[in-house]
Specification:
The complex is a heterotrimer. By secondary structure, chain A is an alpha+beta fold. Chain A is built from three helices and five strands. The structure holds protoporphyrin IX containing FE (HEM) and iron/sulfur cluster (SF4).
């Protein structure tokens, strides 16, 4: 079953499913094996709404491992490596854009 | 759904009756509409009467029936919708309702204690597994800060009593 | 300090046990996320971009030195060595693991702390003046009543699942440092015919539909505080909207049914419960008062020789003029510790800084610390003769920037660097602004300016009530910022006016600078503050200049 929200899913390019790991909140991505990885490059990439919905279904059914799943756009480089598209996802991948207090400058 | 009353699983003797159905020869739970429309006729029967009261309707409307109602079932459409807590306290503390006050709807274990503190004595429990947890949940705290109709001592008063005693 | 007794300790321990069990049930899959989320929120646990965030309540902003050390411990042991002090007298840790949360909570409980009432649709941590019980301008210590409210509202069975969050603030001073007019309920202590009571203000708030609260009662005798609050909350619980999360705050209910009708409902309900179990009496209030241990103030007089001598040091003199305020006791002073050094995230403190402040509080300030809603710390009771030594020690920790109340004393929410709801970043902008306005002579010349930044319309950085308000918006994946002028959070609370179209990130600092240059040019004299000039001139002259160079 898909909620009305999910049915409206618009996929405009390569897309991955991301969420936060239940135990510690770490950012994770759904892999092709329907598991979760904390490395973006291991994420399963889809490019049609149907495929994205299918993956999202798998992700949502696994909320005992990861929570708050949603689709995020990525770019795929020639060598196959993945990169986030918007600032929010870049920050989720790379951490805050500012030095953490107390970190050695 | 299992019904737990005063901490113990019990059989539900009441039959919920739709507005257009004829009343069975048994204790009944009717809608608010039906209670307000048929009022006295319902109580003239030889069976206990209960009402299922929606959470957006003023419970003080129950005043004329409060001594005769056997059950008031209040509704938590979602456990996050807390209107029935206020209704429960008003029924118990303002109207002095002594019958069974039943929590229905999305009744989950992490809210049992709040419900009991507001005056519910019967819980219509959603998850089978939560039934065994009732005793533990409603005793998970031994101290309470604010007074409700449940009569448990609260610190402002207790501290005061201690100060006076000392 | 409020001293917890056996009762409070038992309660906190039981709360920790309950939460430990809830976390376990979630990890075991017995609770699903939808069921667990409100439970974790009620313990102050959010899920942000990178990790869970734990928000810990600092009731009425008061901390003992030991509690500060407990915060430092949590920062080191369970987080990444720092914490963020918020505008609501809470502290947030950004990197907590769900698995470790019960242990962190247990450690905090040992110091009498918790995350209760820092999130969820319940009555939140009641906030008050950080100068409470220290400033000469107040009629009574407002924390007494904040504590009474804390006790009444903690895990209130009827009001734990309200339509939306509920925030109460209280002040007893003429100058409102608690922003009571932009809270769900604001309480102003005052006296009438020799009786202490409250002006009751309802329905203020910021967020996407900001409102300044309405006074529904000019005077409520103090004995009636709790019954009146219960009547307001019951009216709200029954009638607040639950169909739309953006319309669920009490401000919308008050707005939609009108202040008069709302007041009528509250008064009608109150009439029924006024003389019931919640009625307070002097003995009950005194019993609470007895739990606040008054510092053993030394008998001293103002202007000791040590202080006068120190004033010849220009750096000290500058800090003294900026960060030190008069105290109700002779020979004492209130010290504000700036958490806004140049280039740092506003409100952040490292574990080492927390420990240092705790030690300094023990040495010079009767062991007491306060958290201010401007995201600074306060030592409420400092001996004037110790000010110079204290200043040197603070300076060594990077905690003596003399910018309190000035343009670089920025209030900012975490924004997109941490927050899952953000449109844009707040912290880098704050850092750039503090760098542009690093010159102490220049900012002192500009004088009092409150600049507030929120990363989205939720307004956690109070941008609506900043003299200069900055709101992050997003346009096609780019960060843009709207600028408002003329907002005020004090007793004359007012919402700022939009200056014009949103500006891109790299323009904001320039626009702010042009606004301030315009002020310096147009002010009648140095006595006319920025906000006064905006009021006199309106926003037009600022608007013209701010956008002129683009
Ligand atoms: C980082 C995670 C945070 C989240 C998810 C969050 C969420 C929210 C939301 C959704 C609102 C709007 C409520 C409404 O309009 O009904 C809000 C308001 C507010 N938050 Fe936050 N917030 C966060 C952090 C903070 C911080 C760090 C502060 C203090 C610096 C803060 C203080 C406030 C205040 C004062 C308001 C506005 C006043 C009001 O309630 O109307 N919040 N927050
Ligand atoms: S204002 Fe928006 S971005 Fe900032 S903390 Fe609040 S919710 Fe997050």
């Amino acid at each position: 079953m898909t909620s009305p929200l999910q049915q409206k899913l618009k996929i405009t390019g390569p897309t991955v499913i991301t969420a936060n790991r239940l135990t510690d909140g770490v950012v994770v991505w759904l892999t092709a094996e329907s598991g979760w990885s904390d490395t973006l490059s291991r994420a399963a990439v889809v490019s049609t709404p149907d495929d994205a919905l299918r993956l999202l279904g798998i992700a949502n059914a696994d909320e005992n491992h990861a929570v708050g799943a949603y689709p995020a756009r990525v770019t795929v480089a020639d060598d196959g490596s993945l990169a986030p598209v918007n600032l929010r996802e870049r920050i989720r991948v790379g951490g805050p854009t500012v030095a953490l207090p107390g970190a050695a400058a | 759904m299992p019904l737990v009353k005063n901490g113990k699983p019990v059989a539900d003797a009441f039959v919920a009756v739709a507005d257009e159905d004829t009343l069975p020869d048994a204790p009944v739970l009717v809608s608010a509409t039906r209670l307000l429309a048929e009022g006295e006729a319902l109580f003239a029967r030889n069976h206990p009467v209960g009402v299922i009261w929606p959470n957006d309707k003023d419970v003080l409307l129950l005043e004329p029936f409060v001594d005769r109602l056997a059950v008031v079932a209040l509704i938590f459409p979602k456990f996050r919708d807390g209107r029935a807590y206020s209704q429960a306290r008003l029924l118990r503390e303002r109207l002095g309702f002594k019958g069974e006050l039943r929590a229905t709807g999305n009744v989950l274990r992490d809210q049992f204690l709040l419900m009991v503190r507001c005056g519910f004595d019967a819980l219509e429990i959603v998850k089978e597994g939560d039934v065994a947890a009732v005793e533990k949940e409603i005793h998970s705290y031994s101290v309470f800060y604010q007074p409700t109709g449940d009569g448990r001592p609260v610190p402002l008063r207790a501290r005061l009593a201690a100060a006076r005693g000392a | 300090m409020y001293i917890y007794d056996e009762f409070d300790r038992t309660f906190l321990q039981e709360r920790v046990d309950e939460f430990r069990d809830q976390v376990k049930r979630r990890l075991d899959g017995e609770l699903n996320e939808e069921e667990f989320k409100p439970l974790r929120l009620m313990n102050g646990v959010y899920l942000q971009l990178h990790a869970y965030m734990l928000r810990i309540a600092i009731p009425y902003g008061t901390l003992s030195s030991d509690q500060m050390r407990a915060l430092a411990h949590v920062a080191r042991r369970y987080d990444r060595g720092y914490g963020h002090f918020t505008t609501r007298q809470n502290i947030q840790f950004n990197w907590i693991k769900l698995e470790e949360l019960p242990d962190a909570m247990a450690d905090l409980a040992r110091a009498g702390m918790h995350g209760l009432q820092t999130s969820g649709n319940c009555i939140r941590n009641t906030t008050t003046d950080q100068w409470a019980n220290a400033t000469p301008e107040e009629i009574e210590d407002p924390r007494l009543y904040a504590e009474i409210i804390r006790q009444w509202s903690t895990l209130h069975p009827e009001f734990t699942y309200l339509p939306r969050k509920f925030k109460i603030a209280i002040t007893a001073a003429k100058h409102d440092r608690a922003a009571i007019r932009v809270h769900d309920i604001g309480l102003r202590l005052h006296r009438k015919d020799g009786v202490t009571g409250f002006e009751v203000i309802v329905g203020g708030g910021l967020g996407r539909t900001p409102f300044v609260g309405k006074t529904i009662r000019e005077f409520l005798p103090r004995h009636d505080l709790l019954s009146y609050l219960e009547a307001i909350l019951r009216t709200y619980n029954a009638g607040g909207r639950r169909d739309n999360i953006y319309k669920a705050r009490i401000k919308i209910q008050v707005h939609e049914i009108g202040t008069e009708e709302f007041t009528r409902r509250v008064e009608a309900e109150w009439a029924q419960i006024k003389d019931g179990a919640l009625a307070l009496d002097d003995a009950a209030i005194d019993a609470i008062r007895a739990h606040f241990k008054e510092p053993d103030f030394e008998a001293l007089t103002d202007g000791p020789a040590e202080l006068e001598a120190a004033k010849t040091n220009p750096d000290f003199a500058r800090w003294y003029a900026n960060s030190v305020a008069p105290h109700r006791k002779g020979g004492h002073a209130i010290v504000t510790i700036s958490l806004k050094p140049v280039g740092a995230p506003p409100g952040d403190a490292t574990a080492d800084q927390m420990d240092a402040v705790a030690d300094l509080a023990d040495q010079y300030a009767y062991g007491e610390i306060r958290v201010a809603h401007e995201q600074n710390l306060t030592l409420p009771h400092v001996r004037q003769k110790d000010l110079f030594t204290l200043w040197q020690a603070l300076d060594a920790q990077g905690l003596a920037t003399p910018n309190i109340g000035l343009i670089s004393d920025i209030i900012a929410c975490p924004g997109l660097d941490y927050c899952a709801l953000a449109n844009a970043r707040s912290i880098p902008l704050a850092q750039d602004l503090t760098k542009r306005f690093a010159d102490l002579d220049r900012i002192a010349d500009i004088g009092r300016v409150h600049l507030n930044i929120s990363g989205c319309i939720n307004a956690c950085g109070h941008h609506h009530v900043g003299h200069i308000g900055i709101l992050g918006v997003e346009k096609q994946d780019q960060e843009f910022y709207q600028i408002t002028l003329g907002g005020k959070a004090n007793h004359k609370a007012k919402l700022g006016e939009l200056l014009g179209p949103a500006v891109p990130e790299n323009e904001v600092v320039n626009v702010v600078e042009r606004i301030l240059d315009t002020y310096v040019e147009l002010r009648t004299s140095k006595q006319e503050t920025f906000i006064a000039a905006v009021q006199r001139l309106g926003i037009e002259p600022f608007k013209e200049r701010a956008y002129a160079a683009r």
